Amino acid sequence: MDKVPLVVGNWKMELSHKSAVEVFSAMKKMMTIKEYPVEIVVCPSYPSLAVIAAESKASGIAIGAQNIYHEERGAHTGKVSVVQIREFVTWCIIGHSEVRAAEGDSDLLITQKAKLLLQHGITPIVCIGESEADHAAGNTISIISLQIDVLLSSLDRVSLLKTPIAYEPLWAIGTGVLPDSNEVCEVVLLIRKKIAEKFDTELAERVRILYGGSVTAENVQQYISGPCADGVLVGGASVHPRDFLAIAEQVGHAYAR
Ligand code: PGA
Question: Gene3D superfamilies given for it (predicted)?
């Protein structure tokens, strides 16, 4: 199968511009994992995108943004549009639970953002996940189904093929609390089943589905050793070059086996 696993680093607001440039240049120097088929993306904050994008040439690390506004242009104070980031990034995270919570992004708005990004040649990484309360109440499958249904009703086959989906249970993000790998697998299989029902099994197998939430170099193995996730979305550990690349190396290695 020509599917390459994907490892995405979400730097959130963790670093000053100076530190972001330093972290990136350290990461670039440490890149020794070219022998494994793994795609690596880091997503700095907006102010660092231009400089890091220039630094990233021939590094083997692609650059993404952490979000965009859903309008292409207009009077939207404080927002950043796809047109403003497209010369710097080839990826963009959308639907992250922190953005959903702060800005109220709905699943429909997130699909609108996905389409906008794809129109401008940027690959969206769509985050989905259930809250702690929903998890405790046993609603994980129904919440994920709703989120996926909205995405599948708006994206066509070609768009979906390009769009990785990251399953991030909200209660696992930044908490150190890890979901059981079987539970993650169950959600990944549900997403594939839904894609197969709407489209076909070939597409269902080819779409990359990631796991995200408290991933470290020490715990990543359990999520990538089975037939489930095609990579990971990493927050906290991604600003530490050695840790982040150790995660990427394990993902590439697991996939190459
Ligand atoms: P975390 O963040 O790895 O720090 O839990 C993951 C994310 O927010 O994507």
Answer: Aldolase class I
